[in-house]
Specification:
about 350 residues; alpha+beta; D-amino Acid Aminotransferase, Chain A, domain 1; nine-stranded mixed β-sheet; 9 helices; 18 strands; about 25% helix
């Protein structure tokens, strides 16, 4: 291995304290985590250690200037009980796209790949097997320079933590548009998984939830007319048997699940359009009876049906989610591919392999 790992196993596992039949999303964490440091572009001190707090200086630049990025991934088990990852190559590439935009170092493929494999292999007993459940993986990187001043930084930490989780949205989602808030503009960081994108969305999300909705359906910053994405998901609409999703124009995250949905729709023989889509077009399609389905897609959220869309005080209610065939088929097919019960004709799933722990544990 180009990046040798130091392995420190936890003395007492917390597995026995977890009820795997009742897992909220993002509340519990696995026994171990991966940590590495970059110093002036060189990666070193790669470690898998017991999950816990990490001390850092209160002058760390990430705290003051928001130089933080992250990814979201999931691990599953196939019918043979082997741990699997879903499309990790896309996450690695997107992580580095985010890093480049935020003036952060690239994480080499070998480091990213080995860190994921060794960590998931070590904590594979934390992977739930209940339907819809998974081991959520959160790789993230932040600047650690001890300097109060705006400048590109040279010191960074790259960390991966794991979280056994259930459904992100246990019921259909109610979304609302806003005219006074903007998520992203062209030339900004809307396409990156930068922490600040989500921090800026907290007030609109709070207002949406206070009004009885689950999430914000974001529109463009210039006209507040064209749909972009939901706060935690890309978004799809099926109008008159055509699947439509906003095109990637620099303000929208290039979702791994989004790409998977597009490929599956095409496999089904459906027409797929990636284009600008106005909220008015969606509302008009519903009025004409042509809006057949609407759902969000994301790693954490999976395929989440939308039940209500509110725009400028007018709210439409879609047909019951249980009777809509499009999102249901996508959900079942994606779950089947991830869990190994449906053939993986795209080669999306990767079996977790260890170079270090497999020998130690045998």
């Amino acid at each position: 291995m180009k990046y040798p790992f130091h392995i420190e196993r936890t003395e007492v596992s917390r597995l026995k304290n977890i009820d795997f039949s009742n897992l909220p999303f993002g509340k519990y964490y696995g026994d171990h985590m991966f940590v590495a440091e970059s110093r002036r572009g060189r990666w070193m001190d790669c470690r898998i250690i017991p999950f816990g707090n990490i001390p850092f200086s209160p002058a760390s630049s990430a705290i003051h200037y928001g130089q933080i990025i992250f990814e979201g991934m999931k691990a599953f088990k196939n019918p043979e009980g082997e741990p699997m990852l879903f499309r990790p190559e896309m996450n690695w590439k997107r992580f580095n796209v985010s890093a480049e935009r935020m003036a952060m170092p690239q994480v080499p493929h070998e480091l990213f790949h080995d860190a994921l494999n060794e960590l998931v292999y070590m904590d594979q007993d934390w992977i739930p097997t209940e339907k819809g459940y998974s081991l959520y993986l959160r790789p993230f990187m932040f600047a650690t320079d001890r300097f109060i001043g705006v400048r590109p930084t040279e010191l960074f930490k790259f960390i991966i933590i794991t979280s056994p989780s259930g459904l992100y949205y246990p019921k259909p989602v109610k979304v609302v548009t806003f005219q006074k808030y903007v998520r992203a503009f062209p030339g900004g960081v809307g396409f990156a998984k930068a922490a600040g994108n989500y921090g800026a969305s907290m007030l609109p999300l709070k207002e949406a939830m206070d009004a009885g909705f689950d999430q914000v359906l974001w529109t463009d910053g210039y006209e507040h007319k064209y749909i972009e994405e939901i706060g935690t998901m890309n978004v799809f609409f099926v109008i008159d048997n055509v699947a439509i999703t906003p095109s990637l124009d620099g303000t929208i995250l290039d979702g791994v699940t989004r790409d998977s949905v597009i490929q599956l729709f095409k496999q089904y023989g459906m027409k797929v359009e990636e284009r600008r889509l106005s909220i008015d077009e969606v509302m008009e399609a519903n009025k004409k009876g042509l809006l057949q389905d609407a759902f969000g897609s994301g790693t954490a959220a999976g395929i989440s049906p939308i039940s209500h869309i509110s725009h400028k005080g007018a709210t439409i209610e879609l047909p019951p989610a249980a009777g809509r065939k499009y999102w249901l088929r996508l959900r079942d097919d994606l779950d089947g591919i991830k869990n190994g019960t449906i053939p993986d004709r795209y080669g999306w799933c990767m079996k977790v392999k260890s170079q270090i722990l497999a020998e130690v544990l045998e």
